[in-house]
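# step 3/5: fold
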Amino acid sequence: MKKRLFSLLLALLLCALFVLPAFAADTEHPLRLIDKVGLLSSQDKAKIIARLDEVSEENEFDVAIIIAPAEEVGSQTKAYADRCFVENGYGMGDDDSGILLVISPDGDRVNYAYTTFGEDSRPFDEDAFDRLDDAFLPALRDRDYVASCLAFAETCGEIAESGGIPVVPWIILSLIVGAVLSFLIPMSVLKGQLKSVRMQNAATSYVRPNSMHLTQERDLFLYRNVTRTARPKNNSGSGGSSGGGSHSSTGGRSGSV
């Protein structure tokens, strides 16, 4: 009886050792919604954070939003978003992939910018940015911050999940491939029926004996191939990105509404 009890306690201890680090890692992740202006109620913030967490964990791609005052953001909203992504420790996966939206009310207008980081942000190209703008900017123009944040989170999840490629182009591509195959298959069948035609290695079979006599022969130089190799440049004094764990934004947009 004591051995069974000891085994049970040992199993529970091992389970705790595996669960606690995962729980600690989850709690250490920075909040995916930071409202420095106080535009959102506690209930609204909880609703948006829950959706941001869900979208981020489902796709292993961090989606976060910061609402900051204009005096803190300054005139370069995109640069502020880049800096906040790194300083707040956003990003998921080995290369800290994610996207951050910054919303900054400034008098009668609202400045915004979003920035992407990491290899997994490749689906977020210009077409995806257009899709994001169409999703969250209408609500932002109406100063409906809750709807705007939720639309941003939802659309980011859809882009990350689908790889940024809408379903319609895939349908069009399938139709094109089907049309090409429907043309090539009958052509290959007809070609196989031409049994009287055989490939010849030379043109001698098409020339009658003694029907052609060469009276003059000469060699003409028609073409030439020139290969050039670029001289390597010395970049030792040029300014570039610093190595050793540095990472920079892979894209994004900014504007005002």
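# step 4/5: annotate
Confidence is low (pLDDT under 50) at residues 17-26, 164-170, 233-245.
# step 5/5: archive (pending)
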